[in-house]
Design a protein that fits this description.
globular, two-stranded antiparallel ribbon, 138 residues, mainly alpha
């Protein structure tokens, strides 16, 4: 069995980018952190690599991609809960769903798209939190 280094690099990139988002979530002391986000990114990257390379020329890789989005939606839904009038976990669910897409982009070898998406996610998570903190401190 020959190891394809390009496919390996795709999964490593997915792990790193998912880890960056997970690290930010862990710093914010959220329940889903570094390992969870890395696993979601690598898992979706692996499914994407398999859908493109593993099922032959007649396979439709879009079918597996669509199922990743649905499956991650169910995973994310498990992170949402209600405490009285407050709903918690929506950002975690959205983050997991987005990191799955980043993993898919990395799995396709779309490194620039995956990296730019990660930066956008980090700006949203960390930057908007700073704005919210500033607004609430007034």
């Amino acid at each position: 069995m020959v190891l394809n280094w390009e496919l390996t690099i795709r999964l490593v990139v997915a792990a790193i980018l998912g880890g960056l988002v997970g690290w930010e979530r862990e710093r914010a002391q959220r329940p889903a952190g570094l390992r969870t986000y890395m696993l979601v990114a690598v898992g979706s990257g692996l499914f994407t690599v398999l859908s493109v390379t593993g099922f032959g020329p007649d396979a439709d890789p879009g079918r597996l991609a669509a199922n990743i989005a649905v499956g991650i939606g169910f995973l994310g839904a498990g992170t949402i809960f209600r405490e009285g009038e407050v709903i918690r976990g929506l950002t975690t669910a959205a983050g997991l769903w987005t990191v799955a897409a980043i993993g898919m982009a990395a799995g396709l070898g779309q490194y620039l798209l995956a990296t730019i998406s990660t930066v956008i996610v980090l700006v949203i998570l960390a930057g908007v939190r700073l704005l919210e903190t500033h607004k609430n401190s007034r």
